[in-house]
Amino acid sequence: MSEQQTITATLSTDERFSFFFEVLTKTGLNAVLSGPGPFTACAPTNEAFRRLSPIAFDAVMQDPEGQMTRVLQYHILFGMLVQRDLKKLNFPKTRLGTTVEINERAGVVVINAAKVIIPDILCSNGVIHGIDAVLIPK
Fold first, then answer.
1. Which of 6, 16, 80, 85 has its CA 20 to 30 A from that of 38?
2. Domain interval for residue 105
3. Residue % of the chain over a pLDDT of 70
């Protein structure tokens, strides 16, 4: 068994999350997810980014130090929350300082409206959950 890597290192080599990794790097949040943590990264897949409306996508991409950073911070939770722990929470606080809503529907963990489709990618400083939508803070 190979040694676990940080969340950032894991995302950098997993093609399912290449766009999430790219925008993390643009905002500098890749450094945060390389730190000691523990963190839970709710990582939108590449397909999730492709489904984002063009207007929302452009608004986020045009402001990497503002809106993009806010959006990405909304995907980071504190602590190592594997799926069995994640589904017990209702409104955990994000790195942005606001909360997300977590429910379980038909055995699937849902964060706001995003389904966890790739759970429990364990890393040395936390865990990644692949989600099927980009979370946009209010």
1. 16
2. 7-131
3. 96
Give a yes or no: residue 36 inside a domain: yes
- Number of DSSP helices (H) and strands (E) in the chain, helices first: 7, 6
Between CA 128 and CA 8 the distance in angstroms is: 10
Produce one character per residue of 37-68: b if its CB has 16 or more CB atoms within 10 Å, e if not: bbbbbbbbbeebbeebeeeeeebbeeeeeebb
Amino acid (one-letter) located at 99: T
Exposure on the CB side of residue 81, measured as CA atoms within 13 A: 23
Q: Which residue has the tokens 């865990």?
A: 127
Length of the chain in residues, anyone? 138
Structure confidence at residue 55 as a pLDDT band (50, 70, 90): confident
Return the structure tokens found at 36.
Answer: 């000691």
Amino acid sitting at position 42: C
- The beta strands (E) that lie in the chain are given as 39-44, 76-78, 102-105, 108-111, 114-123, 126-131
Domain count of the chain?
1
CATH code of 52's domain: 2.30.180.10
